[in-house]
Design brief:
The chain has helices at about 5-15, 30-35, 50-55, 75-80, 90-105, 125-140, 160-180, 195-200, 210-215; strands at about 20-25, 40-45, 65, 85-90, 110-115, 145-150, 185-190, 205-210. The chain has about 220 residues and is of the alpha/beta class. It has one domain: Alpha-Beta Barrel (TIM Barrel). The protein has an 8-stranded parallel β-sheet with strand order 7-6-5-4-3-2-1-8. It is globular. The structure holds pyridoxal-5'-phosphate.
């Protein structure tokens, strides 16, 4: 199936309240263009250099999502144009986003990434630390940074019950935090392998790559 067929099929399977971020990392410009031509506008990348190159080469009305781990020293390259940073996992990174957003006279939307997987991973904040960062964001310590939701990646496992549990805990935390801060509207969870479960568990933003663009070759 073509990229546009895959995209249409997935779009149909999503409920209307769910935003689809098409994860185009490692894929060529032409692949993104194919999705763009049938009206898709939200694309996700996980490498800053690649994101910047694609931003330069493609139409200006694309909403670019930085979905992967972001190093502090690279924030400056994406600050002028990025639409949403999904994986904010430290106060240090938030501070740098504040600084660069201020310089660009922008407000940058972010999601705070939670460490929800039981498996070993170094990315994402444990719940207590996320609570502290969310409180600082709400207290307007970072006036050019707007937290609009939360993001999490479930364990890479076949165990559906485990995935359900990880997503459900994040959804519960999201609901608690949303009661404290009405800016929190996005819950970014679900990838090609687990997005149907993520939706069942209350996701309203899914990040889907290989199911749209085909499997990736890392060389
Ligand atoms: C690569 C990536 C995805 C998409 O993964 P697929 O399994 O190809 O859908 C989603 N989220 C993040 C953070 C990623 O790095």
């Amino acid at each position: 199936m073509s990229i546009s067929d895959n995209l249409k099929k997935i779009q149909k399977s999503l409920s209307t309240r769910v935003t689809l971020v098409a994860v185009s990392k490692t894929k060529p410009i032409e692949s993104i263009q194919e999705a763009y031509e049938i009206g898709h506008r939200d694309f996700g990348e996980n490498k800053v250099q690649e994101l910047c190159d694609k931003y330069e080469a493609l139409p200006q009305d694309i909403n670019w999502h930085l979905i992967g781990h972001l190093q502090t020293n690279k924030v400056k390259y994406i600050a002028p144009f990025v639409n949403l940073i999904h994986a904010v996992d430290s106060r240090k990174l938030t501070k740098e986003i504040q600084k660069r957003a201020g310089q660009c006279e922008r407000t940058i939307n972010i999601l705070v990434q939670l460490r929800i997987a039981k498996e070993e991973t170094k990315f994402g904040l444990p719940y207590p630390e996320a609570t502290d960062l969310l409180a600082a964001l709400k207290a307007d310590e970072f006036p050019n940074v707007r937290v609009v939701g939360l993001m999490g990646m479930a364990s890479n496992t076949e165990d559906q019950e485990q995935i359900r549990e990880e997503f459900t805990i994040l959804k519960t935390f999201f609901d608690e935090q949303k009661a404290l801060n009405s800016n929190l509207i996005q819950l970014s969870m679900g990838m090609s392998g687990d997005y149907p479960m993520a939706m069942v568990c209350g996701s309203n933003m899914v990040r889907i790559g290989s199911a749209i663009f085909g499997s990736r070759n890392y060389n």
